[in-house]
Amino acid sequence: MKAMSIREMRSELGHLDQLIESQGEIVVTKRGRPIARLLPVQGARVMPDHADLRACMAELTPSVRLLREDRDER
């Protein structure tokens, strides 16, 4: 665990990913008091892309066909 002031955090913001990877946990302080804790994500899920989600869905019926069937029933 590493403690950093807000000023130090701002200067290291561009390298935050590397810092968290090497330190594991970072406590951000303001005037010596802890105000935030940054932790690495454990077991992060990868979100599927749109094509993968569409492949999992049942085939959709076009609205034109649904309307035609509804009108034909009347």
- The CATH topology assignment of the domain at 1-41 is YefM-like fold
On the 0 to 100 scale, the average pLDDT is 89
Radius of gyration from the alpha-carbon trace, in angstroms: 26 Å
Approximate shape? rod-shaped
* Class by alpha and beta content: alpha+beta
Q: Determine and state the CATH class of the domain at 1-41.
A: Alpha Beta
Number of strands: 3
CATH architecture of the domain at 1-41: 3-Layer(aba) Sandwich
User: Reading side by side through the largest sheet, how are the strands ordered?
Assistant: 1-2-3
What is the H/E order? EHHEEHH
N- to C-terminal distance = 72 Å
- Per CATH, the superfamily of the domain at 1-41 is YefM-like domain
Outline the biggest β-sheet.
3 strands, mixed
What proportion of the residues is helical, as a percent range? 40-55%
Low-confidence runs: none
Number of helices: 4
Provide the β-strand percentage band: 15-25%
Describe the structure.
The chain is of the alpha+beta class and 74 residues long. It has a domain at 1-41: YefM-like fold, CATH 3.40.1620. The chain is 43% helix and 20% strand. The chain has helices at 6-11, 16-23, 50-56, 63-73; strands at residues 2-5, 26-30, 33-38. A three-stranded mixed β-sheet has the order 1-2-3. Strand 2 (26-30) and strand 3 (33-38) form a beta hairpin. The mean pLDDT is 89.
